[in-house]
From TrEMBL, chain A:
InterPro entries: HATPase_C_sf (IPR036890), HATPase_dom (IPR003594). Residues 35-128 form the Histidine kinase/HSP90-like ATPase domain. Coiled coil: none annotated. Keywords: Kinase, Serine/threonine-protein kinase, Transferase. This is Serine/threonine protein kinase. The keyword Kinase applies. SUPFAM superfamilies: ATPase domain of HSP90 chaperone/DNA topoisomerase II/histidine kinase. Transmembrane segments: none annotated. It comes from Jeotgalibacillus soli. It holds the Pfam family HATPase_c. GO terms for molecular function: protein serine/threonine kinase activity.
Automatic annotation (TrEMBL), chain B:
Signal peptide: none annotated. This is RsbT antagonist protein rsbS. It comes from Jeotgalibacillus soli. PANTHER family: RSBT ANTAGONIST PROTEIN RSBS, RSBT ANTAGONIST PROTEIN RSBS-RELATED. It holds the Pfam family STAS. Residues 3-114 form the STAS domain.
Automatic annotation (TrEMBL), chain C:
PANTHER family: RSBT ANTAGONIST PROTEIN RSBS-RELATED, RSBT CO-ANTAGONIST PROTEIN RSBRC. CDD domains: STAS_RsbR_RsbS_like (cd07041). Keywords: Phosphoprotein. InterPro entries: Bact_StressResp_Reg (IPR051932), Globin/Proto (IPR012292), RsbRA_N (IPR014792), STAS_dom (IPR002645), STAS_dom_sf (IPR036513). It comes from Jeotgalibacillus soli. It comes from the Bacteria. Residues 152-267 form the STAS domain. SUPFAM superfamilies: SpoIIaa-like. This is STAS domain-containing protein. One of its GO terms (molecular function) is oxygen binding. Pfam families: Rsbr_N, STAS. The keyword Aminoacyl-tRNA synthetase does not apply.
Length: 133, 120, 275
């Protein structure tokens, strides 16, 4: 069973809206304060990547109910320039925007499950899951 | 529509309490405001209290780190106070060290630390 | 066919049980047989045969299914290894079949049919027993997991501004997270200025454990307290240096006592003896 809610990312304010959405869903599913912070932060990083690199895209939050597990999935989709070398962006400290370079590898550490799919010129699809412990 | 974070002056120090979630513009505006205020008041120390902040992503961390470095260049020491456990954990997991940032449990302890550091 | 088998087993009950007990003893590990008392063994075997007979006479019987459940639970509670119980079932089928052949109760041509029928009777029985074992294990594992979490890591406020977190046992990623959360929430709640993490009870400090401890210490610094690593035994010091783990950023001491003295110093206090 999956319920999805999405935010379209067009400007900086949408990043705040995406965070708000994620925080509310995380709270509702019963995540503790630390996991709420992890989820909110991960959403913020992913939404900002869309805003900075693709210009526009979508950030969706999905509630997951599987057998005995409950979880939250973040889906970040864009049709931007894509990522040529995924391995490179997953390295700590790599940044093309002059940021801290913590973005994607950081998100992977914050979440339990992380998948990235990207082709140059076609866009990027990132999915990350946090399970309720 | 940008909200401005109030910056209070107390003797030689500036006190800032961030009370709501920071969006990018507010964060950048704050950076500018604080530096201007340091310049105007020749403050020697700044306490930024973030007790009410429930998450910090790499962008906000960078803005904070930058403003601390800039303040230092202008001769003001900055102490960050009230970082929540959840925020500390996510920062560490994100891989953000904030290595040379001074921290304290709360505003009061933050002021004490500044006084010690500045030899007041 | 059914009735034939039932009456056959009924008539030679004690004989079959004796044979069974002997053969099980021969075939299974001596160590297992030694811990199981003879009386209990024979009594349980009898109960089991009664149960089989009950199942043969009427397999849809509700009495049978409750009895089967009770029996499975009993075997599990007795703590007999599952390999032993399953082997016992197999041997029983074998003995009954042998005795049926020996006494010429069944036709040579029908041997296969009888064997299949016996097998079919046994299947639900062994299924139920295995199921009971598995669910007992699952329950135990999840209980132990909870127990482990509870024993995870308390933060103890010793004197004002100083708290200690003693770590005991192996630290994995899941526990490390728990420890970090307890540590930070405790620091803020007790308004600690210095926290001593005591690793006397951690058997092995490898790169991963060290990494978790370093992360915890850094997080402690962010919330505004200082972290000290105490209880570093000689062999731990050796592995830390040999692995090239850099703990230079921390204050470390060999014992909790020394750490305590340092912590008091850091908070401008000391212990004095009264005259």
């Amino acid at each position: 069973m999956e319920i999805q809610s999405c935010v379209t990312i067009l400007n900086e304010w949408d990043i705040v809206a995406a965070r708000q959405l994620g925080r509310n869903v995380a709270k509702e599913l019963g995540f503790g304060t630390v996991d709420q912070a992890r989820i909110t932060t991960a959403i913020s990083e992913l939404a900002r990547n869309i805003y900075l690199y693709a210009g526009q895209g979508q950030l969706c939050i999905e509630r997951l109910h599987e057998q005995s597990k409950t979880g939250l999935r973040i889906i970040a989709l864009d049709k931007g320039p894509g990522i040529a070398d995924i391995r490179k962006v997953m390295e700590d400290g790599f940044s093309t925007s002059g940021g801290l370079g913590a973005g994607l590898p950081g998100v992977r550490r914050l979440m339990d499950d992380f998948k990235i799919d990207s082709n140059p010129g076609e866009g990027t699809d990132i999915r990350a899951i946090k399970w309720l412990r | 529509m940008t909200m401005r974070i109030p910056i209070l002056k107390l003797k030689d120090y500036l006190l800032v309490s961030i009370q709501w979630e920071l969006d990018d513009q507010t964060a950048l505006q704050f950076q500018e405001d604080l530096l201007t205020k340091i310049h105007e008041t020749s403050a020697r120390g700044v306490v930024i209290d973030i007790t009410s902040i429930d998450f910090i992503d790499s962008f906000i961390a960078k803005v904070l780190g930058d403003v601390i470095g800039m303040s230092r260049l202008m001769g003001a020491k900055v102490v960050i106070t009230g970082i929540q456990p959840a925020v500390a954990i996510t920062l560490i997991e994100l891989g953000i060290q904030l290595d040379d940032v001074m921290t304290a449990l709360d505003l009061e302890k933050g002021l004490e630390k500044l006084q010690q550091e500045l030899g007041d | 066919m059914r009735n034939q088998i039932i009456s056959h087993i009924n008539e030679r009950k004690s004989e079959l049980i004796n044979e069974w007990v002997n053969q099980v003893k021969m075939e299974t590990d001596e160590r297992i047989v030694n811990i199981i008392s003879e009386d209990l063994f024979i009594q349980t075997s009898k109960e089991f045969v009664d149960l089989i007979l009950l199942s043969l006479s009427d397999s849809n019987n509700s009495e049978y299914s409750t009895k089967l459940e009770l029996f499975s639970e009993k075997v599990v509670r007795l703590g007999w290894p599952i390999t032993f119980v399953v082997a016992g079932l197999r041997i029983f089928v074998h003995i009954v079949f042998q005795s049926l052949v020996k006494e010429e109760v069944i036709d040579k041509q029908l041997e296969g049919d009888y064997l299949e029928m016996l097998d079919q009777w046994m299947a639900p029985l062994s299924n139920e027993i295995i199921h009971t074992y598995a669910s007992t294990w699952e329950k135990t594992v999840s209980l132990q997991k909870i127990a482990l979490q509870e024993l995870s890591a308390p933060l103890i406020p010793i004197v004002e501004h100083i708290s200690v977190m003693p770590l005991v046992g192996t630290i994995d990623t899941e526990r490390a997270r728990q420890i970090m959360e307890n540590l930070l929430e405790g620091v803020v709640r007790h308004r600690a200025e210095v926290v001593l993490i005591d690793i006397t009870g951690v058997p092995v400090v490898d790169t991963m454990v060290a990494h978790h401890i370093i992360q915890a210490a850094e997080a402690v610094r962010l919330v505004g307290a200082r972290c000290m690593l105490v209880g570093i035994r000689p062999e731990i010091a050796q592995t830390i240096v040999n692995l090239g783990i850099n703990l230079n950023k921390f204050i470390t001491t060999s014992t909790l006592r020394k750490g305590m003295e340092r912590a008091l110093e850091m908070t401008n206090r000391k212990i004095v003896e009264l005259e």
